Amino acid sequence: MRASDTEVVFPTSAAEAIQAFGDGRDVTVFAGGTILMAARAYGRFPPTARTLMLDRAGLDELGGDGTVVIGAMTRLSTLAGSGLEPLASAAADVADVEIRAQATLGGNLCAPPGLESPRGDLQAPLLAVGARVSSAAAGGEQTEPVEEFLARALEDPRLVLAVEFERPRRASYLSQRRPHTHSYAVMSVACAETSDGVRVAAGGIGPKASRLEAVERALANGAAPEEAAAAAEGAVQPADDALASGWYRSAVLPTLIRRALEHLQGA
Predict the structure, then answer these.
(1) How far is it, in rounded angstroms, from Cα 126 to Cα 173?
(2) CA distances (Å), 62 to each of 26, 58, 84, 164, 182, in order?
């Protein structure tokens, strides 16, 4: 299929976007385009029958005191200035100012693993706060924990509408970065103190971010940050990529966790 054969749809409401998305088959969802345009330029993303442009769909809600709701089309630049930790720090840490002005929460959450480096910088913070993802497909709308959404996102395409979570009591975020024009994150750790206790998640250690449940259990049992961080050793097996080796990630991860937990205690 040629790009010129693709139907381009500009929904002006969430309802129109859901209808145009249908079952998600042969549909390209265009949010900020910071990943999609590069993939298209290098021939890594063939044209589909329909391209869904979400910029006018009104999915950029951001607010709430107890329960925070963030629309899928909220720009990372907006999120970075929101004060909603640990997402604000994570969003401010993504790439550069031009990318953050275009990239969206929904696009970042749904970012597939890159060929050369990890992506989806907001996945770890969303896991840490226990976010719930509202999405739609042919079977209707649903809201589910972000863990469940990420587990099947590639096999079961759904249109992300928003995420919601209870504002954490305290939160922290740290990343290990590689100097570059777009400042790629080699690895990141997000922590949040919620009503269920302290949740800890890491990005860059696999195709998608994951919770560090061994660390959480150690904290629940009264472990200090250094002792809790050591619980991650052997619990994860990071992969090699263009940014760093799995060995390097395994060696650095406990230090990153310890520092993130210390920052949490001081928040």
Answers:
(1) 11
(2) 30, 11, 10, 10, 26
Prior bond of 86 cis (ω within 30°): yes
pLDDT higher than threshold 70 for residue 106: yes
For residues 230-237, give the mean pLDDT.
91
Report how far residue 81's alpha carbon sits from residue 85's, in angstroms, rounded to the nearest whole number.
10
pLDDT at 51: 95
d(CA 106, CA 263): 27
Closest CA to 244 of 181, 151, 200, 179: 179
- State the pairing for strand pair 140-145/159-166: unpaired
What mean pLDDT is predicted for residues 79-86?
97
What class, spelled out in words, does domain 3-266 have in CATH?
Answer: alpha beta
Whole-model pTM over 0.90: yes
